[in-house]
Amino acid sequence: MAYNLLKGKKGIIFGALNEQSIAWKVAQRAHEEGAELVLTNAPIALRMGELNKLAEECNAPVIGADVTSNDDVQNLITKTMEHFNGGVDFILHAPAMSVNVRKGIRYPENNYEFTHKGFDISALSLHRVLQFAMKNKAINEWGSVVALSYIAAQRVFPDYNDMADNKAVLESIARNFGYYYGVENKVRINTVSQSPTRTTAGSGVKGFDGFINYAEKMSPLGNATADQCADYIVTLFSDLTRMVTMQNLFHDGGFSYTGVTEAVINQMGE
Ligand code: NAI
């Protein structure tokens, strides 16, 4: 059901790779709520061509940008502002990748070149996007930026590997930049810490099936889906949440505050 929550608003959606992507669902929901969009992803992801389907559905241009490149991010912002003839009201940050995870290198043995690359894509990219947005006055007053995080930023989930560090920094950047952007232009910045979700990035984590089933049993409401995550993020882009900023907001069916559930205890036996 649509409520016209984003009528007249304009936004940039990073990181829609395929129909499973959280960003894909956010783009669909934002469009349904009346927003106009620009879609972006790394040039290599665009070559797969899937994003064109979403672009057509949302009537949105696609502008390629590798989030580790200053030039690409500047170009994205310039072209977006030309397209909209002005700034945007919201941004979804969803790029993430860990080479150590991909190559199955355990956390204690991480290769630092890989660590740097993953950090650049998954955490520093939020700072880069915000820095270039601020320089170009690309986010309108009372704009909203949301980045996606995971509870491994606070608690240990061994196979999440160096992505745990990346998420901790991502949340810190949201908090710190949230201060500066709030003072400068009343722009709010939050992270949404989502349940494990079956996507390309999610499924790359070793033991993901066990991970997702455990979280399901440990959450009073069960795991939150990508569609439900999109619903939540749309409210954060809307004018109904103008005073929420610098927060890490759990969207996880209660997982983060649950010590244990009967379902898990019962599995432990005597
Ligand atoms: P996904 O694989 O669909 O999205 C990750 C995106 O990052 C892809 O679109 C990929 O092309 C993009 N990307 C990678 N390198 C890039 C680069 N250099 N420049 C620009 N874009 C780049 O997976 P998902 O799960 O939808 O991920 C979205 C966000 O949600 C990520 O931040 C992820 O860590 C986060 N998240 C995912 C959870 C899960 O269980 N799937 C749980 C909590 C958070």
From TrEMBL:
Identify its protein family: Belongs to the short-chain dehydrogenases/reductases (SDR) family. FabI subfamily.
Which pathway does it serve? Lipid metabolism; fatty acid biosynthesis
> What is the uppermost EC class here?
oxidoreductase
Q: Does the keyword RNA-binding apply?
A: no
* Top-level division of the source organism's lineage: Bacteria
Top-level taxonomy: Bacteria, Pseudomonadati, Bacteroidota, Sphingobacteriia, Sphingobacteriales
- InterPro entries recorded: Enoyl-ACP_Rdtase_NADH (IPR014358), NAD(P)-bd_dom_sf (IPR036291), SDR_fam (IPR002347)
Q: Name one Pfam family in it.
A: adh_short_C2
Q: What protein is this chain from?
A: Enoyl-[acyl-carrier-protein] reductase [NADH]
Task: Give the reaction(s) catalysed.
Answer: a 2,3-saturated acyl-[ACP] + NAD(+) = a (2E)-enoyl-[ACP] + NADH + H(+)
Residues forming the catalytic site: Y150 (proton acceptor), Y160 (proton acceptor)
Which residues of the sequence carry a binding annotation for NAD(+)? Answer: G15, S21, I22, D66, V67, K167
Give the UniProt keywords, A-Z. Fatty acid biosynthesis, Fatty acid metabolism, Lipid biosynthesis, Lipid metabolism, NAD, Oxidoreductase
Give GO terms for biological process. Answer: fatty acid biosynthetic process
Give GO terms: molecular function aspect only: enoyl-[acyl-carrier-protein] reductase (NADH) activity
Documented EC number(s): 1.3.1.9
